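pasting 50S ribosome-binding GTPase for the record, 563 residues
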Amino acid sequence: MSRLDLAARTAALENAAHEGDGRLAPELLASARAVADRARERGGLSADHTVVALAGATGSGKSSVFNAVAGADIAVPGVRRPTTSHALAAYWGQGAGPLLDWLDVPRRHEMSGPVPSGDATGLVLLDLPDHDSVVVDHRLRAEALVARADLLVWVVDPQKYADAALHEGFLKPLAGRADVVVVVLNQIDRLKAGEARAMLTDLERLVAADGLEGARVLGLSATTGQGMDDLRALLTKAARRREAATARLVADERAAASALVEACGSQPPARAGERARAALLQSLEDAAGVPTVVEAVRAAARRDARAATGWPLTRWIGRLRRDPLRRLGLRDTERRAPRGREDLVRTSLPAPAPAVRSAAASGVRQYVQKVTDGVSDAWALAARARAQRGIDDLPDALDRAVASTRLEAGRRPLWWRAVNVLQWTLIAAVGAGLAWLAVLFLFSYLRLPAPPTPVWTVPAPSGQGTDVVFPGAPPGPSDGLGVDPFQIPWPTLLVLGGLLLGVLVALVSRVLAAVGARRRAAAARRRLRASVAEVADRLVRLPVGEELAALGRCRAAATIAAS
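structre below
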């Protein structure tokens, strides 16, 4: 693993922790950040030194092992417990000062000669305080150095090699770091050969159960020197390869990143949001009163069409009915707000019933539940919290959305104008016919000779055409079957024809108006649905989507760091 790889892994872990802010457990994020900080700090210190920490319980003999590895009596094993109160360092090679300062190890010895098993320039050997010390400060120092060491050598004795405090408190938290953990069974000179083999086998089993399968397990005796060459050779090799520091940091970051991946849960299906959107929009449309508005648009469109195309003599009856859109405050001509203050526009829609509002809130929650299916509880709760803030703002936002939606057509249909002109033309014809008849009545009443009046002749069934004749003119020829043609004076024709055609045109226009009203209502529904969708996106889908996007970024970064 190169330094560049470690730097990229550290950056990915930091990004994952950043994206998890406010969503994942604070202690989990703090642990991940601590690992990343430790990697950056260790990466800025000596890369030529390998820090090997000897850790163990009181009486395990780790100070004796320390002296045996160093080849000198540096650590003085004590009789009283706790024997080791402060860490002690023995190092080979120059330039270890800043590293030991970072480790906070003031007691240090520079070794002039090589480790007895060979040249180990760059080795920094630490004798840690007892991890089971009754002094809290000692335990804290040990834990801090265990977290910062490059290679950990746990020294156990035959009496306490299976101690729960060791396995539960220290080895299990190191799961996945088998490459940088060595477990040493000291004092095997006190055991028979068969007992030593059996105990080493049992120790290997316990270490594997701690998640450290593959970790090296050695048996030795610091007193007799049995097995010490194997330990010295192992440490010398680690010092020469100079890979333990990077391996430890990579292992720590992988463990922290894996915990973040697990805490994030699985990514929801890509199309889960689209499938849940339809149900969300339906519940919000009901809460916004969209069905009421659409029906008002349909009724208003029929009313407007009848007012423009109905029979002029009865149009006034329709105007007595209250305008459905005006009653809701949704007439385009009445919805005016100062420029830049469109948020002041409101409708006169009745407040949605509690059941409807509850259904809308339930629709939002169901949407969140569907799009966060499989997500960790922490992240799902964060998404629900964002959606809940949107629920509180929904009533006003939906009312403004309906109020700002254009519900009426931009201009009246051309056929309205044409029919209106036709209707008034027919009324004019009726008026002309009535006036003509009034003149003829006046002449008859005054006993004056009637002016000539044209007549529209309706031919008999086998007739050949229509003739216009004047009073006093000789009758036209018979059709040869003895049936006289039917004759209607033009004034009467104008009155009756105008009335009949006006009613017929009004009836046809009513049918066309119903079709047009349905189309206008459908167009209004589409625009209202778009307005409601904008509110749903802004208050629900976008906030929840941001949470899921953050989840995706957190998972992606943590997965990179854990790879």
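The beta strands are 50-56, 88-92, 107-111, 123-127, 151-156, 181-185, 216-219, 455-458, 468-469, 486-489.
Confidence is low (pLDDT under 50) at residues 334-346, 478-482.
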